[in-house]
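Researcher: Here's a chain I'd like modeled. Treat it as a single chain, no partners, no ligands.
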Amino acid sequence: MFWSQLDLLSQYLAFQSLLFSEKDEYTLIISEVKTEYEGEYTCTASNRFAEQWVEKMFKATVQPPNFTSQIKPIKCQEGGEAYFKYKVTGDPIPDVQWYKSARQILPGKYCIIVNNPDGSGFINMKGIQQQDSGLYTCKASNPSGEASCMTGESSVSFNIIYATVCILLFFLGLNTIQHILMCTFVYCTGL
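Model: Modeled as a single isolated chain. Structure tokens:
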């Protein structure tokens, strides 16, 4: 059994392909498919009595990543959760990574990253703090290209919370009761 490609890639394909046989059925598997591999392939079988061949046209179906659902900026409280989801297409399904500024985010105790086989996924960060505010980017890549999805200047922003704490203190004087109202303005920064 012999496979050949009528274009000039047969030499390269010899290193990137695998001939698989089971009983009388033979399959050519080409790994790391690229658009350059498109073309006509011929399968030739021969013995001392005859030679038979079959020609097949191969069309590579690779598509670069494309985000069909963008991540959106959020506001949340300090100690709360930040949740971003995405949907990306591409063939093959792209690999997805998350970044805060230029630094890659890895899953951990307070960070869950899910990338589904259908191209959807999310990142869920728990117990976020002030230093977690900033620009978050979702990058998708496959052999055909790369795409990024980000929002504005800041994907995670902090709400400013003002709280007024008033304490009414009673002091007993000699013959009078003094009322003192103490008010303190507390400035809190939340997520």
